[in-house]
Structures are given as structure tokens and as C-alpha cells.
Amino acid sequence: MTGFYTLMYHEIIDRQGYDRNKYKGIKVKQDYHDVLPEPLFCFKDEFEKHMTYLYENGYTTLTIQQVVDFYYNNRPIPEKSVLLTFDDAYKSVLLNAYTVLKKYNFHAVSFVVLGWLFDEPQEYTQEYSVCMSRDELLSMSDVFEYCNHTNLMHTRKGMESAVMTEGKEKFLADFRECEAFVNTKKVFAYPFGLYSKENVDWLKESGTLLAFTSNDGFNTKDTNPLELHRNACLLQYGMDDFIKMLKV
């Protein structure tokens, strides 16, 4: 079956010194506090094993343009393909993932919450999920392309995100703010993976070509390109789980 998996990462952390009991949540420029669920972390040594497996088994790390061409221009993608995505632009990605990706000449996507990026670099600490500065983020542009994850709407109340509750005009204005910054346009990831049918309709009306959920699955030609699947690479997964996740 022709298609691809999208792998979703957030924080890539050192195993040494990790203590969830000391974790205090996200540290971002926006006046917003939240806690990144522990399963969304990935230990650096496991991440390196993931990337080594992909490299040694001949996987292609896709660009967004290849995915767009697959859905809109009837162009094939390599048989063994994955799209690597990293949400929220945490500093641990720069410190712990970037060099690994570069070593294998891999390509990746950063879904950027524009309003979370600091003006100046912040000290990295395992006690927080520290967001990058704009300059830090852009320093990875030989490996990463940058896509829209909202400006100030990566917030939630319970199981509803701001994208779902704020209304069409406010959402589209926020979308355009982030869109002006990112270098790959018309691509979106739903914050927290939460969205409504109306959100999908708004994105379609705005000309968005691809939008990513947090729902597991293999993306084929039959998958709605505005509801693409992503498989979270979770902290509790071992290599057997990772390999199993890639089976079609």
C-alpha cells in the first residue's frame, strides 16, 4: 500500500538526571502555562535508535512538498517513507535532536507556535519544557522546515482548544500571524490534536493544503489531507514498539 507514516515528537531529553517529580511544565513567551504530558517526551538515546533504524533500513524522510505532490499532483513517494515532525519548538530539539538528524542527512518539520518563541535564548533546564528563541529555531533551517501551529492559540480549557472555541475570524487572524513567519505555507498542525469539523472547513476555505491531527494511522491517497494521521513516539515505547509502529 502506497503512503507514509508521520512521526510526532515534542521533547527529546537526556535520560541521565531525568526526574518527572521535578518537572514544572512549559516555559514559553506567551503568558500561558501548561504541562506537557510525560508520554510525549522521548529519551535522546531512544531517539538516536529510532533515527539509526530509519537510516539503516533505507527510509526516506519526506519534505512537505513531497507530501503536497502526493496528494495534489499525483506524484509517487518512495516506498519506505516517513515524515518527521516536532511540535512546539522546544530547545531540547536543538540540543538533542538536530545533530542526530543532520548526521543522517534527514529532513524534518517543526510545527511552530509563533507566540511561544522567545526574543532571546533562555537557559535550558530539565525542569521546564523551554521554548526556543526565533534565532535558535532558524539556526536549524538546514534540517528543518517550519510550519504553522498557531500564533497564540495553542491553549486549552479541558479538552477544548482555543482553535475550537474562539471563532472563525479570530482563528484565521491568528493563523495568518504565524503563516507570515513560517517558511512553508498552507500547512497546519492542530494544537493538542484537538479540532472540530468547522476548523477543517476554515482551513480548507483559507487554502490550506495539509493539516495534521494526533490520531495514529498510515496516510494513504484516501486520507483527507486536512486530517492527516500522526503517530506519537512515546516515552514508554521501546525499539520493538517503534518498529511495529512502522508496519503497514
Produce the secondary structure layout.
Elements: E1 5-9, E2 11-13, E3 25-27, E4 41-43, H1 44-56, E5 60-61, H2 64-72, E6 81-87, H3 91-103, E7 108-112, E8 128-130, H4 134-138, E9 144-148, E10 156-157, E11 160-161, H5 162-165, H6 168-181, E12 187-189, H7 197-205, E13 210-212, E14 231-232, H8 239-245
Structure description:
The chain is α/β, with parallel strands linked by helices and 248 residues long. The protein has a single domain (5-245), classed as TIM Barrel (Alpha-Beta Barrel), CATH 3.20.20.370. Helices cover 30% and strands 19% of the residues. The longest helix has 14 residues, at 168-181. It is globular, with a radius of gyration of 17 Å.
Q: Can you describe this structure in just a few lines?
A:
The protein contains 8 helices and 14 strands. With 248 residues, the protein is α/β, with parallel strands linked by helices.
CATH class, named: Alpha Beta
Q: Report the β-strand fraction as a percent range.
A: 15-25%
> What is the share of helical residues?
25-40%
Tell me the CATH superfamily. Answer: Glycoside hydrolase/deacetylase
Count of separate structural domains:
1
Oligomer, anyone?
Answer: single chain
Structural class: alpha/beta
Mean pLDDT: 97
